[in-house]
Structure formats: C-alpha cells, structure tokens
Write a structure and sequence with these properties.
29% of the residues are buried. The protein is elongated. With 567 residues, the protein is an alpha/beta fold. Helix 3 runs antiparallel to helix 4 and helix 7 packs across helix 10. Strands 2-4-5-7-6 form a five-stranded mixed β-sheet. A five-stranded parallel β-sheet has the order 9-8-10-11-12, with helices on both faces. It has a two-stranded antiparallel ribbon with strand order 1-3. It is built from 15 helices and twelve strands. Helix 13 links the parallel strand 10 and strand 11 (522-526).
Length: 567
C-alpha cells in the first residue's frame, strides 16, 4: 500500500500522453472520459491507502482489506483495459502497437507493486489484459488474433513471475515471524547480559577503588619504613645489626618492587606515560640492568651474559629500560638451570635486542595469554616471590605505546627468547646516563616544609632530611602549613597529594606560595594509584614521586631544586 504512490504520477502522465497521441474526432470524448477515470482511480487508490495506513492495520482486518484491494484494482485494471475497446478499432498500426505496448508495460509494473498480495495482482491483470484479449478477438481480424494469443501467453508468464515473487515475499515474512521468538530470546539474553555487564562494571569500579585505597594505605607505612631504614643505615651498627637491617631492607625492597609494578601498570592505564624518544647508547642501559639483576641470577646458580655493544638507538630509554627489566626479571625467575643471555643483533637500520633463557619455556597456545594481566605460568600457588603477573602485560603495553615490535619464540622445557626491534640512529648522544645515581654529598642546607597527614611518614621524612642537613617544619593540614610558612618561609615544600578532608597537596602548595608571595619549589608525593588521581597529579606539572619513595631519588630531586643551598 505504501508503494502505490510511486506509480500514481507516472501512470497519469502515460494516460495523458496516450490521450494526446490517440485522440481523433471519433474517440476524443471517450478517451477524455478514460483519462479522467484513470486519474481518479489512481488518486483514490493512493488516498485510500494512506488513510488505512494512518488508521493502522489489525490482524482481524486483513481479509476485508484484501477484498477491498481486489475490488479497487479490478476496477483499475478494467479502466486501463478499456483503452483497447476505445482505440484499437480507430488507430493506425503504430497506434495499436503503442496501445498494446503501454498496457503490457502497465501490467509488468503492477506486478512489482501488487504481487506481494497475489490475488490483487491476479484480478488486476485479468481485468486489464483480459479486456485486451477480448477486444482483439472481437475485431474479427486474423492479424489481431495472433496478438491476442501473444497477450494471453504474456498474461500466463506474468502470473508465473508474480507467483514466484509472492512466494518469495511470503517466505521472507514467514522467516521474519519464525525469528520473532529468537529475537525475543536474544533481546532477553542481551538485557540479561547488559545487566550483568553493568554489575560487573560496578564491581570492577568498586574493586579498583578498593585496590587504589588499599595500595595508598599500604604505601604509607612502607614509605616510612624505607626512610627509617635509610636513616638507620647511616648510624653505627654492629655486624649482626647491619645484617638484620640488610635483611629488612631486602624484604622492603621486594614489597616496594611489587608496589611499583602496580604503579607502572596504573600509570599506563591512566594514560600519563608519554614517550620521550632520544638517542642513547644501549650499553649504558644493559650495564645498569646487569648490575642490578645479575646478582639474582648468581644467587640461583645461573650464568648471566650480556656482551657489550656500541649501538646507539632512538627511543625512550626509560621505557626501554622498563621493558628490558621485566623481560630479564622474568627470564631469571623462570629459569632454574643454565642461564640468561642478552644479545644485540644489527639488521640494516634496526637492532634486535634479544633476551634468551634456558627456563621452563612456554607452549605456543599460551603465547597470547602470558601478556594478559595477572597471568603467570607455573605459579598456581601464587608464590609472592614470582611477582604479580603484570610484567609481560606492562611489556606489551609499553611496546604498543612506543610503536615497536616484540617477537616471542619458545619450546616447553627448553627455554624462550623475546626479540625487541629498535631503530638504530647516527644522532649524537647528549646524555649517556639514563638514570644517574644521585650524589650523597654535599649536604643540603635548606628549610623544608613537609605536609603529610600521616604522623609516621612526617617523622620518617624529617629524620631523613635532617641527616642531609635540612631543617624541617612538619604540618598535617593546610591550615597548619600556612601558619608555619608565615613564621618561617620554606625553601622547598614536600607535600602529600591527597590529604584529609578532600584537600589536595596542589592546593596547599598554591596557598603557601600565595602567603610567601614567591614560587617556592615543591615536590608532590603520592601513594594513590587510581588512574584519575594519577592524571590529576601529572597535570599539575610539579615533580611527582610515588610512595614508597627511594631516598636516593628524593635526594637527587632535592639537589636539582635546591642548587644554591648546597655547601
């Protein structure tokens, strides 16, 4: 019914052309009435269809509606077919051919519109082409009889095509109804899945908040513990006491390493890691990794080999160090016999940095799984000495961030090799030291204002800073820090990022600077690993250090911010 309008204007125009072409003094009145009848029939069909569609069609109305359409289109077909009665006997041969061709075309066009309801098309084409056949035969001219037979055959052909079209439409509709139950089931399943997803997202958000809060709370005492240990190591200790302190430091370092792994992952997830590519000598990084991790291999009785290289590569040295450190740590962790080998192979304009081991190996079916978060092979008992299962997840994200390629080859029981492709460069190396160790002397003589809502952290920070020759003022809130700053303007501020009563360290630093009317150097310290907090802290532009803070890195930052305070 919606398609009836598409043939209205063309049908009326065709009827008008036929009237203008075929009229003569004997049939002009009849053709004029015929033109009016065709136009009225077309317009009424369209009007009636739109009215019914607006009203809506219900299931109990379909039988009556089918009969209504059959009657209307029987009348429409008879009106079109009457053209043969009016004009064939008075037309030229060319006119007769035109009449038959147009009426045949009208029948063919109606098939595409009416065949979905087959009885409607049948009555239309029978009334239209049946009138033509009868008119041709009634002329009693053998020349027209052949035309009548051809038209009859044409009617049969159209009926066959209409039947196929009707069956296709019916099958399509039937398939649609057959799928209704399935669609309803899928909708129900989708709704259930959406609810489950929403519940999972809420649970995941709650878990993330819990982990962030737990991580923050865990970092506070570990941060203080590390500072106290640094102070303790500078005192006079007996050999036995020093061994105990070293053991405590080792346990603290293991915990710190796991917390920093979580921090690395959180920073990646927060999107605050931005590559800073430059040219650097790879050997500097390899030497640093060897100094730090080779002792772990020696403790396990493993060979650690890292032949020297003179290659200069172009990438972010800090991120490459993070990738290599995780790969080498994993190699040592999962190798029990043999050793670990780090190789550098040049291939035209690139260098392949390779970490080989003779460890437990990885089945090819697990190649993708090992790069997932919290996935560990051979650690079903969750041995804390084997880390958190985030190392390779961090490696994959760093490799993607740098736009590099990482290849893996492994055989269970025989070992593994990870190959990282790096771009070589001929650029000059401006700074050959990736992460220079901070100086331990001279002492720093400066007044430092420490703002932290944890008393033990304030105490630990004060003792460490005093060992470095600083005078410390301690505050636990913005109000207290402002009072201290008014009486003794600080040379530097060290503030925790998240304080009590939803106060931020950035607000405290800004308030102190306003009171002192100068841009006092400041350091933010945070134990928060929530991605949104990391983004907020990184956006401040202030030096940001994460708890537990390494005393050596803290000293380095202080020496950079207080160059004139050294003696």
């Amino acid at each position: 019914m919606k398609n009836l309008g598409s043939s209205t204007l063309p049908g009326i125009l065709v009827a008008l052309i036929l009237y203008l072409t075929l009229k003569n003094h004997t049939n002009e009145l009849g053709l004029a009435l015929w033109l009016i009848a065709v136009s009225a029939s077309k317009l009424f069909d369209v009007y009636d269809a739109k009215r019914i569609i607006r009203r809506g069609i219900h299931l109990d109305q379909t039988a009556a509606l089918k009969i209504r359409l059959m009657l209307l289109h029987a009348m429409d077909g008879a009106i079109w077919g009457s053209l043969a009665w009016l004009s064939l006997s008075t037309s030229t041969n060319a006119g007769s051919v035109l009449i038959l061709a147009v009426l045949a075309g009208i029948a063919a066009n109606s098939m595409s519109i009416l065949s979905p309801v087959l009885p409607v098309f049948v009555v239309f084409v029978v009334c239209e082409l049946g009138s033509i056949v009868y008119a041709v035969i009634s002329l009693n001219d053998p020349a027209y009889w052949a035309i009548g037979i051809a038209v009859a055959l044409y009617v049969v052909t159209l009926m066959g095509q209409a039947y196929n079209s009707s069956r296709t439409v019916r099958n399509s509709i039937q398939l649609r109804f057959d799928n209704l139950d399935l669609i309803q089931q899928l909708s129900a399943a989708s709704e259930k899945a959406a609810k489950a997803l929403a519940a999972a997202e809420r649970t995941n958000a709650e878990k993330s908040q819990f982990l962030a809060a737990t991580s923050h709370d865990l970092r506070q005492p570990i941060h203080a513990q590390g500072l106290f240990l640094e102070v303790l190591q500078t005192t006079n200790l007996s050999q036995h006491q020093r061994e105990l302190v070293n053991s405590i430091s080792s346990a603290t370092n293991a915990t710190t390493e796991m917390l920093h792994t979580l921090l690395d992952y959180s920073r990646i997830e927060a999107g605050v890691v931005e590559p800073q590519a430059r040219a650097f000598r790879l050997q500097t990084l390899l030497s640093k990794i060897e100094n730090e991790l080779a002792p772990q291999a020696n403790t396990k009785g493993l060979l650690y080999r890292s032949p020297e290289t003179h290659a200069v590569v172009h990438s972010d040295p800090a991120l490459i160090e993070l990738i290599l450190r995780n790969l080498v740590s994993n190699a040592i962790r999962y190798t029990h016999h043999g050793g670990v080998l780090i190789l550098c192979r040049k291939h035209q304009s690139r260098l392949s940095l390779e970490v080989w081991d003779s460890g437990i190996g990885i089945a090819s079916s697990q190649f993708e799984n090992i790069f997932s978060e919290f996935q560990q092979l051979g650690n079903s008992e969750r041995d804390r000495q084997k880390g958190l299962g985030l190392g390779l997840a961090i490696v994959r994200k760093m490799v993607d961030l740098l736009g590099l390629e990482l290849q893996l080859a492994s055989r269970p029981g025989r070992g593994s090799v990870f190959k990282l492709s790096l771009p070589l460069t001929q650029l000059a190396v401006l700074d050959d030291d990736i992460n220079p160790a901070p100086l331990r002397a001279p002492q720093l003589h400066a007044r430092v204002l420490v703002v932290d809502d944890d008393a033990i952290v304030r105490q630990a920070m004060a003792q460490l800073l005093e060992e470095w020759g600083c005078h410390c003022d301690l505050a636990e809130s913005q109000e207290e820090s402002l009072v201290l700053a008014r009486h003794h303007p600080p040379d530097l501020i060290i503030s925790d990022y998240r304080l009590r009563d939803h106060c931020k360290g950035t607000d405290v630093i800004q308030a102190i600077r306003s009171v002192c009317k100068t841009e006092i150097p400041a350091i933010l310290v945070t134990g928060d690993t929530a991605p949104i907090r990391l983004r907020e802290a990184a956006a401040t532009g202030l030096p940001l250090m994460h708890k537990p803070v390494s005393p050596l890195l803290l000293y380095k930052e202080l020496s950079l911010l207080l160059p004139t305070s050294q003696e």
